[in-house]
Amino acid sequence: MMGRRLDPRVKSSSTAHGIAYFFIRRTGAPVPRGAGQFYVDTLNGLAASGSSGMIYQPPPRLTLSDVFPYNDANSVYLGHAGWGFLFNGLTYMVGSLENLTGSPVVLEANARSAAQYWHTYKRCSRHSPPAELLDEMRRLPFVKQQSGRDVGPYTAYCFKEFRGHEPNDAEREVLRWDTGQEFRLADEYGNVSSIWSSYSVIAQNCLDNAVAVLNAYKASMPRPLTNAWFPNDYFDMLVSRGWNSRTL
After folding, report:
1. What is the pTM of this model?
2. Does some domain include residue 129?
3. CA–CA separation, 118 vs 148, rounded Å?
4. CA-CA distance, 228 to 192, in Å (whole number)?
5. Can you tell me the distance from the alpha carbon of 236 to that of 245, in angstroms, rounded to the nearest whole number?
6. How, if at all, do strands 18-25 and 105-106 pair?
7. Higher pLDDT pick, 72 / 79
8. For all residues of the chain together, what is the average pLDDT?
C-alpha cells in the first residue's frame, strides 16, 4: 500500500512553488500538573535508555519548568496541530492526527479508525486565500462526517511559500501514518519494546505528524523538543521565523 496514491483521481505535478500550512487549535489538550510531571519523567526515561524509536530524541534530565509553563496555574493548554499543503494546481491536501479518543496512547495499528487520523483533498477556487481549505479547518465537516462527533474548530494558521516542494513525498508520508507506525517504548528499568501504534502523546502525536508531513513536503520544519515543546509554542515559533499568520 505504500506506493498507492490516496486518491487516484488527484494527480500531482511540478508547480512553480509550494505552500505549507500549519493549523492550530489553541485550547486543545489541557494538561494538569500531575500529568505534566508524568510526561517529563517519561521523557527522561526515554532519553536515559537511548531509545531510537522516538521521532525526535528529547534532551536529558528535564525538569517540569523546562517543558510546561505552569507558573501558578494547575493546568495549561498545549494546543492541537493540523497541516495542509498545496498539492497541485488549485488542489490542497489537509489533515490532522485528531485522536478524539483522548487517550495518551492508542495501540491499534489503523490510525484512521483508532485515533481519527484524517486527511482529504480540497479543490480551491484561488490561492489567496484558499477559502475552501480554510473553511474545512474552520468547520471540520469531513471530520464530523467520519467520526460522528462534534469537533472544535481550528482557530488560527500560519503559512509560507517556497520552491523545491515535494507533494508526492508528502502524500506518501500521510499514507505511512495512516497505516500505523512502529515505535519503541522504554520501561522504568530501561527495557525497550517495539509496538505498533496509531497515537502516542510522547512519541507520535499531532505535532509530530504535522512536522513529519510538512518536512516530507520539504518545508524545512524545525525539530520539536529542540525548538518548541507543544503545538501552541511551535506555532508561535514559526511566526517568529517569518511564517505569515492569520486567524480563522
Report:
1. 0.77
2. yes
3. 13
4. 26
5. 9
6. unpaired
7. 79
8. 77
Query: How do residues 143-183 score in pLDDT, each as one tens digit?
Result: 888 777 778 889 999 999 998 899 999 999 888 877 655 44
**Cell numbers placing 46:** 526515554
Give the DSSP H or E segment for 82: strand 80-88
Domain that holds residue 41: 18-247
| Residues 18 and 167 sit within 8 Å (Cβ to Cβ) | yes
pLDDT(3) > 60: no
| 29 lies in some domain | yes
- The alpha-carbon radius of gyration of the chain (Å, integer) is 18
Inside any domain, residue 128: yes
Burial annotation 140-152 (CB, 10 A radius, 16+ → b, else e): bebbeebeeeebe
Number of domains in the chain: 1
Query: How large is the average pLDDT for residues 187-201?
Result: 50
* Cell numbers for 134: 480554510
| Chain centre distance of CA 66 | 22
Q: What is the pLDDT of residue 59?
A: 65
Peptide bond into 141 cis (omega under 30): no
- 9 within domain boundaries: no
